[in-house]
Amino acid sequence: MVGRKSALALAGLMIVSALSGCAAGSGGSSSGGNGQAVENSGKAELPKSAEPVELVVADGLGDFPLERFNKVFAEPVKKKYPHITLKWIAAGDISKRITAGEPIDLVISSSGLLQARVVDFGLQYDVTPLIKKYNYDLNKVEPAALDMFKKFGNGAVWGIPSFMSPSPLYYNKDVFDKFGVPYPKDGTTWDDLNELSKKLTRLDGNEQYYGLFLSFAHVIRRNQYSLNVVDPATSKAAFNTDAWKSVFEQSGQFYRNPNMNMTTASAALAFQRDAFIKKRSVAMWLPVSTLHTEAELQGMNWDMASFPTYKDKPNVGPQPYPVAFFVTTSSKYKDDAFQVASFMATEEYQMEWVKKGEFLTALKNDTLRKSFGADTALYKGKNIKAMLPDTYAPASALTKYNGAAETIMNSTFTKYILNQTDLNTALRGAEEETNKKIVELQAAEKK
């Protein structure tokens, strides 16, 4: 994910769309700002005499601190392109600027927030002509991440995946040692992980220990079977299936262990996160898309293992969850904005910050992968390889209704792990609720 503090929001990321005009702002024009290009070894570049420009960058992640933005993004861009100054605005200011007719040049967002922070405002813009003009090599990018956004944009490229949300299984060695249980290993299956969890889940005196907690919302988005949440052809719920039922069961088995003593309070994700980070009564924690900070892990005897696999999907990790800088249709400086966005997706820019542990790369680059955290003591001796899978699951379809469907699915999962309903009944009810909600959203779109 992008800055470590922001990894929770990343929950999705970058995006690629198509050249065909498929949504607001997907036109092919790439002019504007300092658009005159000069040739240099076959690659177009901004002229050396480019006039100074200020590019407004919106926080489409929701919690990225200004200080970190300046340090990690604005200053390196100024060094690379002295005529470009980046101005940061909060996520809550996006709609205000649009209402006031004030342009936004770039939005940094994830695949999970692309719809809400870019598409819903009609800011998406197909940068395919700019990719060709400036000769950016898309073969450098993780194919699964690029494919995810091409699917969303029906082939148009709205952004170049730059950063990737991690997907390790964090674990607290002290809890394992306390109960004499061996640590999890890379390549462990969901079922084998559940067997480990059973050995660690217990009431010890007055202290409740939990074997494993996870973020099911992110399991949905990154499911390894590449299952659709909403059918893109019919805009109907697509999760009342045997395959989805298996995903619910595999994730729910950890919670349905009677020794977990689950309550409404402990079913909340905030409780589970705090139990691992603060109370330290959780053996294993699978946030799915989080890069924890040094402050959060301070004093914990921790390490990581790779994301669990399904027996029938060996060696297949979760779906990608990329982050990108999206050039917007409202920008008057699209060429300059693209230079910034594409610079973020280069080894030249990323190496320093990857070594410092600021984010993981969405580039298909082994050197960057292996260099993560090399310059920080936090990751010394840690299983860095576990942070990203060797093989991503293919991208499932992203639709404008995924968010609504995922909210209902997550609520259904909570009812299931609290034994408030059987799974078949729960999925049928969730399907009906989702389809009703989609109809309501479609009606609202026509107003």
Polypeptide structure, described:
This protein is α+β, with helices and mostly antiparallel strands and 447 residues long. The chain has 2 domains: 4-164 and 321-384, D-Maltodextrin-Binding Protein, domain 2 (3-Layer(aba) Sandwich); 168-317 and 401-447, D-Maltodextrin-Binding Protein, domain 2 (3-Layer(aba) Sandwich), CATH 3.40.190.10. It has helices at 66-80, 94-99, 114-117, 128-133, 143-152, 173-178, 190-200, 216-221, 242-252, 269-279, 294-297, 334-344, 347-355, 366-371, 402-417, 423-446, and strands at residues 38-40, 43-45, 53-59, 84-89, 106-110, 163-164, 169-172, 202-204, 207-214, 230-231, 236-237, 282-286, 302-305, 322-327, 360-361. The strands form 4 sheets. A 6-stranded mixed β-sheet has the order 4-3-5-14-6-15. Helix 1 links the parallel strand 3 (53-59) and strand 4 (84-89). Helix 15 (402-417) packs antiparallel against helix 16. The two termini are 37 Å apart. The relative contact order is 0.19. Residues 1-42 have low confidence and may be disordered.
Query: Which blocks of ≥5 consecutive residues have pLDDT under 50?
Result: 1-42
Q: What's the rounded overall pLDDT mean?
A: 90
CATH hierarchy, class of the largest domain: Alpha Beta
Strand order of the largest sheet: 4-3-5-14-6-15
Query: What is the tally of beta strands?
Result: 15
Largest sheet: 6 strands, mixed
Task: Tell me, briefly, the overall form.
Answer: globular
Beta fraction: 5-15%
Report helical residue fraction.
25-40%
Gyration radius, in Å = 22 Å
CATH superfamily of the largest domain: Periplasmic binding protein-like II
Q: End-to-end span in angstroms?
A: 37 Å
